[in-house]
Structure formats: structure tokens, C-alpha cells
């Protein structure tokens, strides 16, 4: 009878096997690096070996036992994943926090009913939002600016409602966007050129813009010719799908409204704000809406107002409105602008342009006006905060010529330079060295991403979201005219960095991922999430976050999730039940680093189709 092996021999063999596996992975990692370098003569052999030996998912090193997390880390990934069902056809364009039926139960005063009203836990959907039949991948930029497939957003009402204003036209199986708008029916280019005669758009001084009541975002679409990036918003209202059309065109936009709560942006974010017949009552509520624009406008920034009531004396007949009504509207706007100490730079035809002063010293009357200064010590704190009729103080300046909050370099220079919010030390615990190291690290990460997803910056992905953006270094590393990134800073993050994102010439928004994002389904081509699921441990369910990612991701869109391996194992299991194809990949520094990357692709399917299995 064969002798019984002792326990010590088993442990030795187990340890030796582990050493061999790790050694082989390291060897083939180095072999792969040599093969990619272009200097090896065994490229074909190395490629075959790499395909046969998959070290992208590390062996089970008993993480479950020794490194338990709070995310149900005891996951047997070999068990069958829960398969999420498709939602019904009526939910094709479901926007959970801007649901039309729920909105009608809220007060209409100050547009409260058009603001975010998210469903309670028991009303959340736990199914996959289907794409409409015939859905196709949007055209690549810049063709997408002018054409949107009809099947992707099959709503013709605007083609009738805005026919004379050249917003949108229906032609066969596509919508065509001629570039017109209510204030510029002959096209956005000529209108923007008129603004650019006053506002410096050519030299990078003006890089970020806010478009309030954007329609189908033609202003933002054509601003990109001048390398200006606009954050556009409009409510989900009777103008059906206007924000959806904007995003289908490849233009940044969110569902939003100036109502009772602050805009979800930091103070001093935008170089320019714009309203073209946006129907916002600027003089109402003691100027509260203009004061909110002032909060998010940087010192030296511009506010453009075109349409009623500007220059009412010569326009009132064309507008078919009483002279007295228009006169009173403009009087109130001029009065609030004076209280804010904005300088009027231009008024001609139906356009007026004001400029915000550089600092408090350049307008001593601002702090002495009848308006109260806002009491909040943190003007960046905006998430679900009540809007107030108060003036946001300037940051301190040391001289009358100094820009309050620090002078910002023109774009693209400021993309990689140190923002004033960092150099001034105004963000606790963040040094210049920390920021520069983060910038360097994300260049390295993106380079590694491109080795796996070789089309990352090819133009295939136009609308990109970074769900936990930090300083915006991921967006900076992939910055290109072919794409734009919505940099989301979670409201529960340890530090608020969205102000830094804007000072780099990028755009973004505050959001809490325990709730749905303010967008339509299928509006992003690629979603990136760094440390997001670890951040939200014990805050909300990973399943809810993944379902929201699926809602806003286009069919055949990509996902990159970076996190701890035990967290990613659960995420991978959930994702496999969501009609995603997934692949877990080692950190670029090797298999022994606990942080891993999960790459995923959402499979193409439309309403009425059954799920198919995947790995």
C-alpha cells in the first residue's frame, strides 16, 4: 500500500505550485513586454504564448479568507450570476429622477416640479432599460453634430414646433440639425462670431461655458470649433427629448433647471454663461437666478443674454408683447446686474453682454449694497442646497489688479499646469506635489488602458463619463477634440475637487451615485469608474450603481472599472448577469498589486429580445 503523504508535504507542494504560477505569470508578463517593444524577433511566438497563458485573472490567493471587505467579499465567482430581466417597453427613455408622472405631484412654483425628484427605495427599478427597436451606434463626430438616427430618439414634435427656427428637420431615417436656434435661425456660426467680437474665444481665455435652457444644444455644438466646451442644460418638459438630442449629437448636456436649488457646479467654474430665449425670469425672486449665475461665473467671466427683453424699444412689435412689460423686465435685469457690479460691455439688436469684475476691490459698492452676502463659508457646497437671493463673496485679492482666486492660464496650457486652487493650498491635504503625481499616474494608467482597449481615443467613444473624477487627470490624459469627458465628483468624496477640474479647462458635475444621474438612457459611449465601489461601501447597493451605469451606457459601449480585487470580483459577477462581456486584468505594475481593472462591453440588444449567456 502506498505510504500516506503527510500534511507538511501537501503544504510544501501547494506553496511550490503557487510560486510556479506566479513565476510563470511574471515571466510571460516580461515576455509580453519584450514582444510589444518591437525589438524581439519572436513576436509571433510570444503572441501565441500570451493567448494560451491568461494571467489576467490571478489565482485564488485566499482573498476571501484574509482580506474580507464589506461588499459581500465572500463571492464564489464560479457560481451562476443572477440574470437581470429587461424592463418593459414603456421605460425605454426612463429618467428616474425626472419622471414625468412623479414631477406632476410637486409644486409648479419656481419650477420645483422640474427639478430632481428621485424614487424611494421601494419604487426603484431592478431591471435593464432596453434600447428601442432599430437602435444604431451614433455617427462619429463631427457628422453626429448634424445628423442623429431617427430610431435612437424617435420624436418628431420639435420638427414641427421649431420648424421656422431651424432647430431640427426630419429627413428619411435621420434627423438633421442645421445649426439654427430660436435666436439664430440662420445658424450658430454667425451668432457665435458676433459674440466673439466682444468675448475672447480665440486665445483660450474662454474655455468653459454654461448654456441655460439649451434646446438641442446647437450653441454648444458650434462653440467646439473655437475649442470652447459648453455644459448645457434644459428641463425634461414639453420640448420632448431636447437634452437627449444634444447627447446623441455628441454635445455635453444634462437634464436640469434653474428652480429652487443651486446648480450642481462649484463657484467660479465657468468662463462664460449664456441664455438665448431660455425663458428664465432673470429679474424675479429679487434677482436670485442672476445671483446663482454670479456664483458659478469666474471673476472676469461673461454673461450673455439674447432675446426678450433686450433692446425692447426696437423689438417689442416683433415679439408681440406689451412695451411696458418688456421695459419692466429689462429694468429689473439691469438693476440686479448693477447690484452684482457686472459691467455692461455690449448691447446691440437683441444681444447684451455683461462682464463680472475681477475682484471685490474693483467694485466696493457690491459688498455695501442692500443685498446680503451669502453666509455659507463654502460656496462650492451646492448639492440639494436651497438657492438664496444673496451675493457670493469674492475670494480675497492682495491688490486691485489681482484676479480673485488666482489667475488662470489659457487653454490648453492650463490643462497640465497647477491650478490656483492647488497652488494656493485651499484644498486641505493636497499639495502641488500630490497633484503633479496624480497627473503623472493617470498618464501611466491611460497608457495601460490603451494596451487593452486599443480604440480608447480613436473617436469610437465620443461621450465619456468619469464617475469618480478626482482632479480630472483621467480626462486630461485622454483629452482630444474627438471626445469630451463628464467629470463627476461624488458628493461623498473626502475632498471637493470639482473646482480644480474646471480650472483645468474641463467640465463636470456634482452627483451622489446612490441616485440616478440627470440624463437619458444610452447617452454615454464609455464609462470609467476609479475606486467608486469602494467609496460607496455601506452607502448604497453595488447592484443599483451598476444598473444605473447600464441605463446610461449605449449598446456596445465600454466600461473600465478600477478597484480592489475583492470588490471587482463581486462587480464582475453582477455585470455578467447584465448582458455585459467582462475581463479582469492585472494592474500595470504586475499581478501582485491588489488593485485590478475590469474591462466590460455592453452587448447590443433591443426591446423584446431575450438575454443570452456570457462570461
TrEMBL record:
<keyword id="KW-0489">Methyltransferase</keyword>
<keyword id="KW-0325">Glycoprotein</keyword>
<keyword id="KW-0812">Transmembrane</keyword>
<dbReference type="GO" id="GO:0008168">
    <property type="term" value="F:methyltransferase activity"/>
</dbReference>
<dbReference type="InterPro" id="IPR029063">
    <property type="entry name" value="SAM-dependent_MTases_sf"/>
</dbReference>
<keyword id="KW-0735">Signal-anchor</keyword>
<keyword id="KW-1133">Transmembrane helix</keyword>
<keyword id="KW-0333">Golgi apparatus</keyword>
<dbReference type="GO" id="GO:0000139">
    <property type="term" value="C:Golgi membrane"/>
</dbReference>
<keyword id="KW-0808">Transferase</keyword>
<feature type="transmembrane region" description="Helical">
    <location>
        <begin position="15"/>
        <end position="34"/>
    </location>
</feature>
<dbReference type="GO" id="GO:0005802">
    <property type="term" value="C:trans-Golgi network"/>
</dbReference>
<dbReference type="Pfam" id="PF03141">
    <property type="entry name" value="Methyltransf_29"/>
</dbReference>
<keyword id="KW-0472">Membrane</keyword>
<comment type="similarity">
    <text>Belongs to the methyltransferase superfamily.</text>
</comment>
<dbReference type="InterPro" id="IPR004159">
    <property type="entry name" value="Put_SAM_MeTrfase"/>
</dbReference>
<dbReference type="GO" id="GO:0032259">
    <property type="term" value="P:methylation"/>
</dbReference>
<protein>
    <recommendedName>
        <fullName>Methyltransferase</fullName>
        <ecNumber>2.1.1.-</ecNumber>
    </recommendedName>
</protein>
<dbReference type="GO" id="GO:0005768">
    <property type="term" value="C:endosome"/>
</dbReference>
Amino acid at each position: 500500500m502506498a505510504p500516506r503523504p503527510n500534511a507538511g508535504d501537501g503544504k510544501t507542494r501547494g506553496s511550490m505550485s503557487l510560486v510556479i504560477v506566479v513565476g510563470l505569470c511574471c515571466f510571460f508578463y516580461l515576455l509580453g513586454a519584450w514582444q510589444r517593444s518591437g525589438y524581439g524577433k519572436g513576436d509571433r511566438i510570444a503572441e501565441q504564448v500570451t493567448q494560451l497563458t491568461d494571467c489576467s485573472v490571478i489565482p485564488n490567493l485566499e482573498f476571501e479568507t484574509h482580506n474580507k471587505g464589506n461588499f459581500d467579499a465572500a463571492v464564489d465567482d464560479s457560481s451562476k450570476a443572477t440574470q437581470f430581466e429587461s424592463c418593459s417597453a414603456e421605460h425605454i427613455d426612463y429618467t428616474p429622477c425626472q419622471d414625468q408622472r412623479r414631477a406632476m405631484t410637486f409644486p409648479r412654483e419656481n419650477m420645483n416640479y422640474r427639478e430632481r425628484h428621485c424614487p424611494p427605495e421601494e419604487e426603484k427599478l431592478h431591471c435593464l432599460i432596453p434600447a428601442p427597436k432599430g437602435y444604431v451606434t451614433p455617427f462619429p463626430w463631427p457628422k453626429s453634430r448634424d445628423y442623429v438616427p431617427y430610431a435612437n430618439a424617435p420624436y418628431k414634435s420639435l420638427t414641427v414646433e421649431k420648424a421656422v427656427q431651424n432647430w431640427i428637420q426630419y429627413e428619411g431615417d435621420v434627423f438633421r440639425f442645421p445649426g439654427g436656434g430660436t435666436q439664430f435661425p440662420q445658424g450658430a456660426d454667425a451668432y457665435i462670431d458676433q459674440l466673439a467680437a466682444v468675448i475672447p474665444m480665440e486665445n483660450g481665455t474662454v474655455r468653459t461655458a454654461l448654456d441655460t435652457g439649451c434646446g438641442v444644444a446647437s450653441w454648444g455644438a458650434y462653440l467646439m470649433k473655437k475649442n470652447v466646451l459648453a455644459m448645457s442644460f434644459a428641463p425634461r418638459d414639453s420640448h420632448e427629448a431636447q437634452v437627449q438630442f444634444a447627447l446623441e449629437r455628441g454635445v455635453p448636456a444634462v437634464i436640469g433647471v434653474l428652480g429652487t436649488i443651486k446648480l450642481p457646479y462649484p463657484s467660479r467654474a465657468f468662463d462664460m454663461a449664456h441664455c438665448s430665449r431660455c425663458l428664465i425670469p432673470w429679474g424675479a425672486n429679487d434677482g436670485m437666478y442672476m445671483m446663482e449665475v454670479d456664483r458659478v461665473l469666474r471673476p472676469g467671466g461673461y454673461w450673455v443674454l439674447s432675446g426678450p427683453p433686450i433692446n425692447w424699444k426696437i423689438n417689442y412689435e416683433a415679439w408681440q408683447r406689451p412695451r411696458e412689460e418688456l421695459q419692466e423686465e429689462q429694468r429689473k435685469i439691469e438693476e440686479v446686474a448693477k447690484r452684482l457690479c457686472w459691467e455692461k460691455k455690449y448691447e446691440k439688436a437683441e444681444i447684451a453682454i455683461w462682464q463680472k469684475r475681477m475682484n471685490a476691490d474693483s467694485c466696493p459698492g457690491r459688498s455695501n449694497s442692500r443685498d446680503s452676502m451669502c453666509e455659507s463659508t463654502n460656496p462650492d457646497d451646492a448639492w440639494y442646497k436651497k438657492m438664496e437671493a444673496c451675493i457670493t463673496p469674492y475670494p480675497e485679492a492682495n491688490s486691485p489688479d489681482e484676479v480673485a482666486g488666482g489667475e488662470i492660464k489659457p487653454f490648453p496650457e492650463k490643462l497640465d499646469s497647477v491650478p490656483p486652487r492647488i497652488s494656493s493650498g485651499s484644498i486641505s491635504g493636497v499639495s502641488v506635489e500630490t497633484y503633479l503625481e496624480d497627473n503623472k499616474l493617470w498618464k501611466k494608467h491611460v497608457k495601460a488602458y490603451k494596451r487593452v482597449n486599443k480604440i480608447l481615443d480613436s473617436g469610437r467613444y465620443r461621450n465619456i463619463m468619469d464617475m469618480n473624477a478626482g482632479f480630472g487627470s483621467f480626462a486630461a490624459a485622454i483629452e482630444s477634440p474627438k471626445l469630451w469627458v463628464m467629470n463627476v465628483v461624488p458628493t461623498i468624496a473626502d475632498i471637493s475637487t470639482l473646482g480644480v477640474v474646471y480650472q483645468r479647462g474641463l467640465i463636470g458635475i456634482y452627483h451622489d451615485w446612490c441616485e440616478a444621474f440627470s440624463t437619458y438612457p444610452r447617452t454615454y459611449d464609455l464609462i470609467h469608474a476609479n475606486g467608486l465601489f469602494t467609496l460607496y461601501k455601506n452607502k448604497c447597493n453595488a447592484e443599483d450603481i451598476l444598473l444605473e451605469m447600464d441605463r446610461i451606457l449605449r449598446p456596445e459601449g465600454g466600461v473600465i472599472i478600477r478597484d480592489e480585487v475583492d470588490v471587482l470580483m463581486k462587480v464582475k459577477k453582477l455585470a455578467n448577469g447584465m448582458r455585459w462581456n467582462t475581463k479582469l486584468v492585472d494592474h500595470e505594475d504586475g499581478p501582485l498589486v491588489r488593485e485590478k481593472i475590469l474591462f466590460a462591453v455592453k452587448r447590443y440588444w433591443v426591446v423584446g429580445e431575450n438575454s443570452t449567456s456570457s462570461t
